[in-house]
Predict the structure.
Amino acid sequence: MPRFAVISDIHANLHALCTVMEDALQRQGCTEVVCLGDVVGYNAYPRECLDYIRSLGCPVVKGNHDADVSGGDLTRMNPVARRAIEWTREQLGEEERVWLARLPYQRLERSLFTLVHSCLDQPMAWNYIMNANDATASFRRQFSSLCFHGHTHVPRVFIYDGMRASEDAEAMDILRQEGEVSLSLADGYKYFINVGSVGQPRDGDSRACYVIFDSDARVVTFRRLVYDVASAQQAILAADLPEALAERLGRGC
Ligand code: ZN
């Protein structure tokens, strides 16, 4: 009876990751973890978060920050993100960078659901799926009824009825208000679900976000959790990372 914790965009925020994992594994009864990438970047604990994820031995797909840390040209990146990537590269060893570089862009998990960081139509282009229109091209490449993604750091639910894509905004309103919302997946539809961000939420809510998938009941539950933002911010400043990265954690943007 697998019960999956689906986590994404941890971004080296160890305080948020520990809070989420404690909730998932100790209180919510999750039996498996899957990770949608961007384990590193922005926050102050890249090595610790990478060690934690690797110790779980769980499926992981590659995020754009995982790719950038493992190599490539940063000249077109904005200065804050670039500084964070350069700093992160210095913290990690060769073996860790190679491990990140070898992550797949997408994978099908036990015929139950697909994992991808950004989208299925061009997973290496790191496109942002901001609305149902953006999601349409991805749905055409989605061969499982359920796919989880991240990348925008904003939790969203897209639904495809075979003709067109729509978005369940009401569920996300409940999530904002209640800190939790559950959805029962209906037969005959495809779902493309953004699980939000563990380590750097950007929907105006500073709480860490993740999803639980009960594959027998076919129920997806979003959870928001208060974590020690102040300590994560202090660690960013102590590491001499850009102050803007600490500020945005407090604002959830
Ligand atoms: Zn990210």
In short: The mean pLDDT is 96. The CA atoms of residues 184 and 219 lie 5 Å apart.
